[in-house]
Write a structure and sequence with these properties.
The complex is a heterotrimer of chains A (about 300), B (about 425) and C (about 375).
Chain A: H1 7-42, H2 49-70, H3 78-100, H4 109-131, E1 147-149, E2 155-157, H5 158-179, H6 182-192, H7 194-199, H8 204-226, H9 238-251, H10 256-276, H11 279-296
Helix pairs in contact in A: 1-5, 1-8, 1-9, 1-10, 2-3, 2-4, 2-8, 3-8, 5-6, 6-8, 9-10, 9-11, 10-11
Chain B: H1 7-36, H2 41-44, E1 55-62, H3 69-88, E2 96-103, H4 108-121, E3 127-129, H5 133-145, E4 150-152, E5 165-167, H6 172-187, E6 191-197, H7 200-215, E7 219-226, H8 234-243, E8 247-251, H9 254-266, E9 277-280, H10 285-291, H11 293-296, E10 300-303, H12 312-325, H13 333-352, H14 357-363, E11 368-372, E12 375-379, E13 385-386, E14 390-394, E15 400-405
Parallel strand pairs in B: 1-2, 1-3, 3-4, 4-5, 6-7, 6-8, 8-9, 9-10
Antiparallel strand pairs in B: 10-14, 11-12, 12-13, 14-15
Helix pairs in contact in B: 3-13, 4-5, 6-7, 9-10, 13-14
Chain C: H1 3-9, H2 12-32, H3 35-60, H4 68-87, H5 103-107, H6 123-146, H7 152-172, H8 174-177, E1 188-189, E2 192-193, H9 197-223, H10 225-235, H11 237-242, H12 247-273, H13 283-296, H14 301-321, H15 326-339, H16 344-382
Antiparallel strand pairs in C: 1-2
Classes of the chains: A mainly alpha (about 300), B alpha/beta (about 425), C mainly alpha (about 375).
């Protein structure tokens, strides 16, 4: 399979595929971080995670229209505004959902799965009613489009770089939030021993709500970023949900580091296989490998031993 | 043909002319009389269809919910517009068309179930509907068993010819052959990269494309399929860059479409430079709205209809469509094909002088529509339409600029010899 | 088995439920509906097989599978392969470049029947395959997961991934599977035309009979020691393990039973609807199947049947009148059942309707007795 190419081309292949894999890695991390926080830290399965992402995408769409018609001068920076608004919109909806739905179901994780699936159906139909069944096109500022040519074959897409930068920022912020801040300490305390955390005066309910909202907020930002590379329609969120769950489970649910490691493994495996096989078979093989490994090592790559 | 004017032939010719004239005369009497008093229901409906003295009921069967609602909305709108216009003109055989709309919910057994309901319970005189091949395959046995008539609007892979379906979209060869010939002749294309979503239509279409390309003595440098809904195309874009084809032949559908074109653009493949040029048969004006005009600018599409077609029929059609459904709506190839359905059915019913399915079917081949927005169409013996292939080039405003159309109507050939 | 044993496995309440259900499906529906509606009910009942299996796995065993569509689909595909081969006789397919193979293979330039299709010429093999292929598949998944003590949420997500893999595979390998269109245009079963009304009528009763059979098996499992162990495991798995039981074997067994029920449902679906497609294998149908079970009541095998009937029936009627609202209703149903009625219709019956009926019956009886006593005392008085 290598004989068709010259050696310079082979170098380019590995460079470009490596980069494609990095973009895929960033996408996976963005999708999975929010879910890893919610699922890993709280044990809640949020099947509506994709719909929170799409909420972020629609917010971006609305803001792009707003800036285009009312503030064309500021259009080049609207994307940053959109991401912030998407974060708070998805986060607010998340807090609402936690208050109305999730907090009643903490003892029944499988039931949260069904309830959030119902929520995802309702959200999808809401998007369809409000924005129409068709996909909407989100226009991007010029500086986000196009690419930086390195050689005549290798070109680096700017929006790919942007997604990677964004992922890095979010991952680092989450790390500091969870492991260096007081609030992060509270979250971890609640995860590891809820009654004891309550006993030392941590408001566990509030902690739960903010954790859930944070996870949803990150989903919103991810959705906002994905308008650059994917589609925005009422049911687009469904496209991501299985991959996202697998990334989280594969990483070992309680470990954020594990999520990142698993996103890296899966994305590199997939993009390498995609190059040498047809797209469909690469997908099947990747999923099969992940499921196979999970059967051998069900606790995932990085499992923490904790008491429930 | 040599023509020798001898007396007997000339006499025969004039007699034929006279008969023709007589026929058209009597036809016009029949026609005018029909607009005065509708023919009795017992005459035009001998099989118990839902026809009364002043109404006839038809069915509309598309997905209003689920993933396919995105695509099928336009077809529903077009069919309702056509029905409304026909009613404003006095209906069919003096009867107003009423419709029963059913939701296939993007679920194939639901399609079969609703088709059966329309035919068995509602006894509709004809059904306009379906979009995906899977939904058509699911309802086909129902239509054949209960002898219904389906007008199917989507361009599709061919390999089918049912007496109970009129295919108002193109079968694969009508979209593919002329498009490839054009890029070869006009653009000097020598090598092709075939790409598609992984299901029957792109696979069958690419198969036909590959055979045609190889017949022309040219090269296919890659062929690849991605699962429906796939959103990451960087790997295949890298492969395209390495193999340097002259043409990317793309049949990506749905949400994947949006991802593909955005990533193609971001990877630095500028389609306006035509290096490589991109030819698609799956992106209509409808899809461009989701993709964004700036992301697909410069791509070529081979279709039979574009909203920008410059003819009187089309202008009034687009105007009426926008009046009914809103100013910012766009009309794509399939939407136009769906619009043809009720009109073709009306023409067939009037030619047959009856709503009976068998008579409408017998009358259908040869039905022509000079008022079609795409120009002129005619129903072939094989129940597909003769129509032209056109090539459009995508512009940033989301419209296509028509750059080529075939001189002749392309003959529909659902079972193309030498391409299977 | 003595009468006492029978009574132990089928207490009076359950017997009455079974009889009511049997009368409903075997008598009331066929008498009150035309063949079109009856065929629809038959289709809904095929989902009831899945729902009964889920009651055992999820309600009793605590194993939530989000991939039951896989087994439904495998059963359905096995049956569809047999029917398709029968419909693709060399005479019927003589216009193809290779007569005698299914039409979709011909369109994909396959010139020879693939080896794994060959055995499906045989009807007995097909019946066996319908029952065994999904069961073996379930055994592989179950053994791998339960032996390593994977359960709960992890299991749910992995079964979901399996459903997703199988869908992509079926769609991608269209030359062998019919792709996204599925296997369509099925006509006869051993020469018997399954598309006619009379065939549909008979198939409905076969389906109903099989369903009642599955209910009896499920009831037997439920009331046996195994059923009690399952409940014990669901509540405190470690204690059961400490008592010396191998927990995983029971889980694997009940998961396989659930898979087998689903497969029977899938095969009956193919027969009654006339085709099979990958849209029943994926994630969405699999989760919908869970809701049938949840609505009926996850602890009641009879409730599961009503759940499947009710959800599908309302889906049909709702989407006939208000297509746009259907997803809202479905979503609300998921949330409502989980939040307000975790034990579904069966729970509703047990807590509210059942006691009321019993009360009313008791009151009637008391009144009757009282009036008789009155009448007696009056007759004494007149004496």
């Amino acid at each position: 399979m290598f004989s068709d190419y010259t050696s310079t081309e082979l170098v380019s292949i590995f460079a470009m595929q490596g980069f494609a894999g990095l973009i895929l890695f960033s996408v996976f991390v963005l999708m999975a971080l929010g879910l890893a926080i919610i699922f890993g830290q709280m044990g809640v399965i949020n099947m509506a995670h994709g719909e929170f992402m799409i909420l972020g995408a629609y917010v971006t769409y609305l803001l792009s229209n707003l800036f285009e018609t009312h503030m064309p001068a500021l259009f080049s920076i609207y994307f940053f505004v959109a991401m912030i608004v998407a974060f708070f919109a998805a986060g607010a909806l998340g807090a609402l959902v936690e208050w109305g739905l999730i907090r009643h179901l903490y003892r029944r994780p499988l039931d949260t799965l069904l309830a959030t699936w119902g929520l995802s159906l309702i959200l999808q139909q809401t998007y369809r009613t409000v924005f129409g069944a068709r996909e909407v096109g989100v226009s991007l500022p010029d500086w986000l489009m196009g690419s930086i040519p390195l050689t005549d074959i290798i070109e680096i897409p700017i929006n790919g770089l942007f997604v990677m930068g964004l992922t890095l920022t979010i991952a680092v912020s989450v790390y500091f939030l969870m492991f260096k801040s007081r609030w992060g300490g509270q979250v971890r305390a609640v995860v590891q021993n809820r009654p004891m955390a309550g006993a030392v005066g941590i408001n566990t309910e509030k902690t739960d709500r903010i954790t859930f909202a944070l996870g949803c907020g990150i989903a919103g930002v991810a959705g906002s970023a994905f308008t650059m590379i994917g589609s925005t329609g009422p049911s687009s969120g469904q496209l991501y949900i299985v991959d996202t769950f697998l990334v989280v489970v594969f990483g070992g649910a309680q470990s954020l580091l594990g999520t990142i490691a698993s996103a890296f493994t899966i994305s590199q495996a997939q993009s390498t296989m995609e190059f040498f096989l047809s797209g469909s078979m690469a997908k099947v093989l990747t999923l099969l490998t992940v499921v196979g490994i999970l059967m051998l090592r069900p606790q995932g790559l990085f499992a923490l031993k904790i008491r429930h | 043909m040599r023509f020798i004017p001898t007396l007997p032939t000339a006499a025969r010719a004039s007699r034929r002319k006279f008969i023709c004239w007589l026929a058209s005369f009597s036809a016009s009497i029949l026609f005018t009389s029909s607009s005065f008093a509708a023919p009795a229901t017992s005459e035009v409906n001998t099989t118990g269809l839902a026809v009364t003295d002043d109404t006839v009921t038809v069915g509309i069967l598309h997905s209003v919910t689920g993933t396919m609602a995105i695509s099928e909305t336009g077809s529903v709108q077009a069919e309702k517009l056509a029905i409304k216009q026909i009613n404003d003109m006095g209906g069919v055989l003096g009867r107003k068309i009423e419709y029963i709309q059913e939701d296939g919910a993007s679920d194939w057994p639901t399609f079969a179930e609703k088709a059966k309901k329309l035919l068995v319970n509602d006894k509709v005189a004809s059904v306009f509907g379906c979009w995906t091949s899977a939904s058509r395959k699911a309802v086909l046995p129902v239509f054949e068993q209960y002898n219904g008539m389906l007008y199917y609007p989507t361009f599709y892979e061919g390999l089918e010819q049912s007496p109970n379906v009129i295919y108002t979209g193109q079968e694969a060869t009508q979209q593919i052959l002329a498009g490839i010939d054009w890029v070869v002749e006009e653009k000097g294309a020598k090598s092709f990269y075939l790409l598609g979503s992984d299901y029957i239509w792109p696979r069958t279409s690419n198969k036909i494309a590959r055979k045609h390309i190889e017949k022309l003595g040219l090269k296919v440098v890659g062929e690849e399929y991605y699962p429906l809904g796939h959103t990451q195309f960087n790997s295949v874009i890298n492969k395209i860059k390495l193999r340097k084809p002259d043409v990317i032949y793309a049949i990506v559908v749905g949400g994947s479409n949006v991802a593909f074109y955005k990533q193609l653009k971001a990877a630095g493949i500028d389609m306006t430079k035509e290096k490589p040029l991109l030819l698609t048969i799956s992106v209509t004006e409808d899809e461009i709205r989701g993709i964004g005009g700036e992301n697909i600018e410069g791509a070529y599409a081979a279709m039979k209809y574009f909203q920008s077609l410059d003819n009187e029929n089309n202008k009034s059609f687009v105007k009426a469509f926008k009046e009914m459904w809103g100013e910012d709506i766009v009309v794509g190839d399939v939407t136009q094909a769906a619009y043809l359905g009720p009109w073709l059915w009306k023409a067939a019913v009037e030619k047959a002088g009856s709503f009976d399915i068998d008579k409408v079917r017998a009358a259908s081949p040869g039905i022509e529509l000079t008022t079609a927005p795409e120009g002129y169409v005619r129903i072939h013996e094989n129940h597909h339409l003769w129509s032209k292939t056109r090539i459009g080039r995508a512009k940033t405003d989301g419209q296509y600029e028509v750059v080529y159309e075939t001189e002749e109507l392309m003959e529909p050939d659902p079972f193309p010899k030498g391409y299977q | 088995m003595s009468t006492n044993d029978i009574r132990a496995y089928m207490p009076k309440g359950d017997l009455i439920s079974l009889l009511i259900l049997a009368v409903l499906i075997l008598v009331v529906f066929p008498l009150s509906m035309d063949i079109f509606r009856l065929n629809l009910v038959g289709k809904y009942l095929t989902y009831a097989f899945v729902a009964i299996g889920l009651v055992l796995c999820w309600g009793y065993g605590g194993i939530l599978s989000l991939g039951q569509g896989v087994f439904f689909g495998l059963g359905g595909y096995c049956m569809a392969m047999f029917l398709k081969l029968e419909a693709s006789s060399p005479e019927a397919t003589k216009i193809q470049s290779t007569p005698g193979i299914p039409d979709f293979m011909d369109w994909n330039q396959i010139t020879e029947l693939p080896w794994f299709w060959e055995p499906f010429y045989s009807f007995p093999f097909t019946i066996l395959a319908v029952l065994i292929v999904p069961t073996i598949f379930a055994y592989i998944i179950g053994a791998a997961m339960f032996k390593r003590r994977v359960g709960g949420v992890y299991f749910a997500i992995i079964t979901q991934a399996v459903a997703s893999i199988l869908t992509v595979l079926i769609i991608g390998q269209q030359g062998y599977t019919g792709g996204v269109n599925g296997i369509t245009d099925l006509r006869t079963l051993l020469g018997w035309d399954i598309r006619t009304d009379s065939a549909k009528f008979i198939l409905y009763f076969v389906n109903a009979g099989l369903l009642i059979g599955c209910l009896l098996i499920a009831q037997y499992i439920r009331k046996s020691k195994l059923g009690r162990l399952l409940v014990a495991m669901r509540e405190r798995e470690d204690r059961v393990r400490f008592s010396g039981y191998d927990v995983s074997d029971f889980k694997i067994f009940v998961f396989c039973i659930g898979a087998m029920f689903s497969a029977i449902g899938g095969a009956m679906f193919t027969l009654q609807v006339g085709f099979m497609s990958p849209s029943f294998v994926g994630i969405v149908p699999s989760i919908e199947m869970v809701i049938f079970c949840a609505v009926g009541g996850r602890l009641s095998i009879f409730g599961a049947v009503y759940g499947a009937l009710l959800v599908n029936w309302s889906k049909t009627t709702f989407s006939e009148s208000f297509p746009e609202l259907w997803l809202f209703a479905m979503g609300a149903l998921f949330i409502g059942v989980v939040m307000a009625f975790p034990s579904g219709l069966a729970g509703l019956y047990k807590q509210h309707i059942g006691p009321r009926i019993r009360n009313t019956l008791a009151t009637i009886r008391r009144d009757y007795l009282a009036s008789r006593a009155n009448a007696k005392s009056q007759s004494f008085a007149t004496d």
